Amino acid sequence: MRTKCLHHLSRKTSFVFVRGPIQDVCTKCSNTFPAGSRITEFDGKQYHPDCFSCADCQKAITSQFYPFNNDYLCGTCHEARFPRKRCGKCGSVITSAGITFAGASYHAACFVCVTCKQPISATSKISMVDGQPCCVNCYEDKHAKRCSRCHKAILADVEYLEFEDKYWHKECFTCSKCQKCIAEESFYQDGNLILCKDCI
Question: Gene Ontology terms, cellular component aspect (predicted)?
């Protein structure tokens, strides 16, 4: 006679105690179950508790597990074999649709601007600051380089030139005298002036 124990590995797995001699043998080791011992039952099969073990780490399974190639994996080993995406912000597993940005995955609720902490839509224009997502408004106001001529923000996806620790939009890099764009040409410096070859 067998009686169910109060503990469960899952809805379909239970412990039972052997009250007297029985004919069944352990599915794994083929040995019998002594009277008074405990049995783990799952999917119509019976095991000694120590025999109901993880195929990888060989430790007895005492909580969550997963069927694997006619055997079982504990939760830890299953995660190692089949790692699930984890959120780049909170570190928790992403179980539903998430957002991928710069090679990292995020829960939609965790995908927020690194500066203002407000949610960013996956369809919005997004910049990056120190590897973290940043909304366009915060990037322009607080993080973007500033053009030395027009003083407007240089956005992350815009071509720009750098010279002596100063920055210009490509179209703003012009000769100080004739105002011709010299972004693609040779130029000369005369004090604070940047001159094209025709104006030197």
Answer: nucleus; Z disc
**Are 5 and 17 within 8 A, CB to CB?**
yes
Q: How many CB atoms lie within 10 A of CB 99?
A: 20
The answer to whether 112 touches 90, Cβ cutoff 8 Å, is: no
Query: Which residue has 């969550």 as its token pair?
Result: 64
- Secondary structure (3-state) at 40: strand
Domains delineated in the chain? 2-81 (2.10.110.10), 99-142 (no CATH), 156-196 (2.10.110.10)
Average pLDDT over every residue of 124-149:
87
Beta bridge mates, 42? 13, 45
Q: What is the pLDDT of residues 70-118, one digit of tens each?
A: 888 888 888 788 877 888 888 888 877 788 888 888 888 899 999 999 9
Sequence-ordered list of residues with C-beta below 8 angstroms from that of 68, at least 6 positions apart, any chain: 55, 78, 81
Per-residue pLDDT tens digits for 146-170: 998 898 888 877 888 888 889 999 9
Find out whether 143 and 115 touch, Cβ atoms under 8 Å.
Answer: yes
pTM of the model: 0.47
